[in-house]
């Protein structure tokens, strides 16, 4: 199994899984609502199916390809300036996840049969968002252990 | 009489020249055959059938049984030598994308075949393949639900910007010199077809055109029991629903992954699962049927 390390993140996906750790290219034309420059913190995507090269931060373009046994994990780091926001305050690493953490209502983009889970947390002052999509809500009890296996391999350095 | 003698001498001289010419021609043929390594009834050739002669063929026609060195046309790499990768272990591809992201493409254990295209941004023969994958000529891939992954050498040996410019949109492209080592790729361009579920290489080779590669690997896929017609290049979301055979293949794969194969006892339950609500009033096992026999015997 290969370990991917980049941008202060590392993950060891199981054999046959796809993964990528990347940052978006900084577009100087994009400004935040507060007038600052857009931040481009790192993003990690891990999936047990072939990730299309072009996809959204939350898996747009990839989740449409998911079959019932598919798993998609997105870990998105936020700008350090957001660490003090109530969204993150006092929340540690959320895994291991439970099947009860998943609901179709959690999906960014609802797709029939799929289910999702989203958590916000802090690690060493770095704010993160974890977003997981499973190909089948009915199979969540089978798929969640696979998700937890991948999440357990995540390292923050 | 003198004239007759002169004519006879002339005919003899012409015949002598003809014979000499034939002998020289024969000697030239023998010399060329010798350069090719052929020997008439060469007993030692029998021992040349040992494994490992990936680039050597044995000619057996006409009693000549000697190894002959095969050569490929310029720009096309020769097959790997002895102990080739065919039917051996495959590896996942890990490296960097042309944009610098760390990435790994799952190959071993994937539910489909993966076509690894080892290309370079600099070789002339590779240009045709970059173009084929971009223009749509290479849109029919051998194997089952095949995923195309283009692999180049790492950033230390390739220009990332050149690879980024050539990389077809929607096709996974990874720069990894380690992948070249792991698969013992002899040169560019080179193609390896991997069966994901078994994690084995089922075909490999090189040619001057995509059509030749597709034919070569299509035959290898067919030999391995896969779809000879191939599958469309997957660039984005599927066009529609799965076909019946695709759904059946997925169900078989899921069951097999769970350890349930043909004849598994769970396929022949004695009782219905799900409590009283699931019971069918009046249901009885068919005499001699699977449930009546028990344990799927």
Describe what is shown at a glance.
The complex is a heterodimer of chains A (157) and B (297). Chain A is mainly β and 157 residues long. Chain A has one helix at residues 140-152; strands at 4-6, 9-11, 18-22, 43-47, 71-77, 115-123, 126-134, 155-156.
Q: Can you describe this structure?
A:
The complex is a heterodimer of chains A (157) and B (297). With 157 residues, chain A is mostly beta strands. Chain A has one helix spanning 140-152; strands at 4-6, 9-11, 18-22, 43-47, 71-77, 115-123, 126-134, 155-156. Helices cover 8% and strands 27% of the residues of chain A. In chain A, strand 1 and strand 2 form a beta hairpin. Chain A is globular, with a radius of gyration of 15 Å. Chain A starts with a strand and ends with a strand. With 297 residues, chain B is α+β, with helices and mostly antiparallel strands. Among the domains of chain B are: 93-232, 3-Layer(aba) Sandwich (Glutaredoxin); 261-293, no CATH class. Helices cover 31% and strands 16% of the residues of chain B. Chain B has seven helices and eleven strands. The longest helix of chain B has 35 residues, at 2-36. The relative contact order of chain B is 0.11. The chains are: A mainly beta (157), B alpha+beta (297). The interface between A and B is medium-sized, with 29 and 32 residues. Strand 3 of chain A pairs antiparallel with strand 4 (102-105) of chain B.
Main beta-sheet strand count, sense and barrel state of chain A: 5 strands, antiparallel
Helix content of chain B: 25-40%
CATH class wording of the domain at 93-232 in chain B: Alpha Beta
What's the main sheet of chain B like? 5 strands, mixed
Overall average pLDDT of chain B: 73
């Amino acid at each position: 199994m290969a370990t991917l390390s980049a941008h202060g993140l590392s993950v060891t996906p199981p054999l046959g899984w796809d993964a990528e750790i990347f940052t978006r290219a900084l577009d100087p034309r994009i400004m935040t609502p507060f007038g600052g420059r857009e931040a481009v913190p790192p993003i990690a995507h891990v999936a047990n199916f072939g990730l299309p090269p072009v996809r959204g931060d939350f898996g747009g373009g990839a989740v449409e390809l998911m079959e019932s046994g598919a798993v998609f994990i997105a870990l998105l780091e936020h700008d350090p300036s957001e660490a003090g926001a109530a969204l993150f305050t006092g929340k540690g690493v959320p895994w291991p996840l439970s099947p009860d953490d998943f609901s179709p209502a959690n999906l960014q983009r609802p797709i029939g049969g799929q289910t999702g889970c989203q958590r916000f947390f802090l690690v060493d002052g770095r704010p993160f968002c974890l977003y997981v999509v499973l190909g089948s809500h009915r199979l969540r009890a089978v798929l969640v252990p696979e998700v937890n296996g991948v999440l357990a391999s995540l390292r923050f350095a | 009489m003198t004239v007759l003698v002169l004519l006879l001498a002339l005919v003899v001289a012409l015949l002598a020249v003809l014979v000499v010419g034939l002998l020289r021609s024969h000697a030239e043929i023998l010399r060329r055959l010798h350069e090719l390594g052929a020997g008439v009834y060469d007993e030692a050739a029998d021992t040349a059938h040992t494994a490992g002669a990936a680039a050597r063929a044995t000619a057996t026609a006409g009693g000549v049984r000697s190894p002959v060195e095969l050569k490929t046309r310029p720009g096309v790499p020769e097959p790997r030598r002895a102990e080739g990768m065919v039917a051996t272990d495959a590896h996942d591809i890990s490296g960097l994308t042309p944009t610098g992201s760390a990435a790994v493409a799952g190959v071993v254990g994937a539910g489909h075949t993966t076509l690894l295209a080892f290309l370079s941004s600099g070789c002339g023969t590779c240009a045709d393949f970059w173009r084929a994958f971009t223009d749509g000529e290479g849109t029919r891939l051998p194997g089952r639900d095949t995923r195309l992954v283009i692999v180049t050498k790492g950033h230390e040996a390739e220009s990332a910007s050149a690879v980024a410019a050539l990389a077809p949109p929607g096709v996974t492209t990874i720069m990894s010199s380690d992948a070249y080592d792991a698969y013992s790729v002899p040169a560019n361009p080179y193609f390896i077809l991997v069966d994901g579920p078994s994690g084995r290489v089922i075909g490999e080779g090189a040619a001057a055109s995509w059509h030749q590669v597709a034919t070569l690997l299509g035959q290898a896929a067919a030999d391995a029991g896969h779809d000879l017609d191939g599958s469309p290049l997957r660039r984005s979301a599927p066009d529609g629903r799965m076909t019946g055979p695709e759904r059946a293949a997925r169900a078989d794969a899921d069951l097999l992954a769970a350890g349930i194969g043909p004849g598994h006892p769970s396929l022949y339950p004695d009782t219905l699962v799900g409590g009283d609500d699931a019971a069918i009033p009046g249901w009885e096992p068919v005499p001699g049927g699977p449930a009546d026999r028990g344990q799927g015997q």
